[in-house]
Design a protein that fits this description.
The protein is built from six helices and 14 strands. It starts with 9 loop residues before the first strand and ends in a 7-residue tail after the last strand. The chain has a single domain, classed as Metallo-dependent phosphatases (Purple Acid Phosphatase, chain A, domain 2, 4-Layer Sandwich), CATH 3.60.21. With 274 residues, it is of the alpha/beta class. The strands form two sheets. Strands 1, 2, 3, 4, 5, 12, 13 and 14 form an eight-stranded mixed beta sheet that branches.
């Protein structure tokens, strides 16, 4: 598709799938400068809930991401796995955790990112199918987007969920109300990128950034042992060759409607960018 335009009243948003451990961070470092020069995104958002050894995130890693040019971070069911999160989540306005956690949970479920002369509201939600019990994400979406849409046209929703049906339902639920509804959590990029009839860009799962030689980014022998023995095992991040998955969306700032959506998939040793 070549270089994406820089001018006009459009906002270009690059959303990067779940970054898994040190392998994912290495892949990000290798690819992000090239993605910036190729697509010229105004705002870059990434899911960081697996960034610290595959579970949770810490302040140093969050800083590393921000220093590399990521403007906002979304989370998911591993939000609280690294206890360091409690030291900084309330002070870090660029990071969101699922908004449908119960009231009083640390952190925030939505935020507004300002960068490159543009503004993007970012909402994080978590599904309830095959995941721990949590408040209704559809109702939370209605409340938050109802509030945000009074001031903001461009809204990104990261729906961290397991079931494809629940994610697709959220896409339709928010069609015409969000600029992009993108799924995370499964670590497998789906092939259903589309712009829904009312102008919402949609992708069931953005995929992951991390080892393609493991199982969802984790070292495969431990995962295989778990499946074959059902005994408890310790999962560790796989350090094999990486793959990088993301999605880029162009949105009309005046309407908040998506104009263009494109999946990105890069493999270590095989990717070359014009």
């Amino acid at each position: 598709m070549g270089h994406w335009s820089e001018e006009g009243t459009n906002i270009k948003v690059l959303f990067i799938g779940d970054i898994v451990g040190n392998t994912g961070r290495k892949a990000l470092k290798a690819t992000l400068p090239h993605l910036k020069s190729k697509y010229n995104p105004h705002i870059i958002i990434a899911n960081g809930e697996n960034a610290a050894a595959g579970r949770g995130i810490n302040a140093n890693i969050a800083k590393e991401f921000f220093d590399q040019g990521i403007h906002g971070l979304t989370m998911g069911n591993h939000t609280w796995d690294n206890k360091e999160i409690f030291d900084f989540i309330d002070d870090e306005s660029r990071m969101v955790r699922p908004a449908n956690y119960p009231p009083g949970t640390p952190g925030r479920g939505f935020t507004v990112i300002k960068a490159g002369g543009k503004e993007l509201a970012v909402v994080n939600l978590m599904g309830r199918t095959f995941l721990p019990a949590i408040d209704d994400p559809f109702r939370a979406a209605d409340e938050i987007i109802g509030q945000l849409s009074k001031k903001h046209k461009c809204i990104l929703v990261d729906f961290h969920a397991e079931a494809t049906s629940e994610k697709i339902a959220m896409g339709w639920h928010l069609d015409g109300r969000a600029s992009l509804v993108v799924g995370t959590h499964t670590h497998v990029q789906s092939n259903d990128d589309t712009i829904l009839p009312q102008g919402t860009a949609y992708l069931t799962d953005a995929g992951m950034v991390g080892s393609r030689e493991g199982i969802l980014g984790m070292e495969r022998t431990a995962v295989l042992r778990k499946f074959t023995t059902q005994l408890p095992v310790r999962f560790q991040v796989c350090e094999g060759k990486w793959h990088f998955h993301a999605v880029i969306v162009e949105v009309d700032e005046s309407t908040g409607k998506a104009q263009k959506i494109q999946k990105i998939r890069l493999l270590e040793d095989e990717w070359l960018m014009d």
